[in-house]
Amino acid sequence: MWERARDRRAIGHDPLTAEGTRHKAQGKRHKAEGTRQKAQGRRHKAGLRTRARSCAFCILVAWHNRFMAGLIVLLLSCVACVQAPVLPDETPPARPAALDSSSDERIDLRIGATATLPGTATTVTFVRVVSEGRCPKGVQCVWEGDAAVELRVAPAGGDAQTITLHTNDRFERQAVIGGVTVRLEQLEPYPEADKPIAPDSYVVTLRASAG
Fold this sequence. Notes:
By secondary structure, this protein is of the alpha+beta class. It folds into two domains: 2-83; 104-210, Tick-borne Encephalitis virus Glycoprotein, domain 1. It contains two helices and eight strands, in the order H-H-E-E-E-E-E-E-E-E. The strands form two sheets. A four-stranded antiparallel beta sheet has the order 1-8-7-6, with no helix packed on it.
């Protein structure tokens, strides 16, 4: 029996030797696998670096193209501005709109203020309150009283004239100026007992209509 065992070891059938050979083969395979994984990792990193460089290049090219496009647009705009001829202003001067016979215009003026009558080049200025004789609120009077205002009218190309209009219909309450009828509608504020009115607080309301 011992001779048979020696014969098997002699011809390579030693169990220990076969086991060691298998371990070595497995070790070589593991080492080869590790080497292959390392190679794959290096290739992956190289691919990432290549893609990163490609992306950076693409971004740089896009930015350069956008910059050049903007520069070209700016240059073309400058050339257009330089070459564009300057045309004289041929817009006719604005003319006042004619006042329709069926409408009227309200004009509010403080003392010293000036307005242009619609449809004309005539101006009217509220100069002063000539008299304040309206019956104050809270007081019983024989009659309603009257207030008078002074207006200065200046037609275009003509001499200014002064007119006086009243709040009471018993007196002259309107005047025709340059084909436009100007009527005194009201004078505010209305007087109250024991409350004097400051001159600069007066506001006259005129109504302009076709004469």
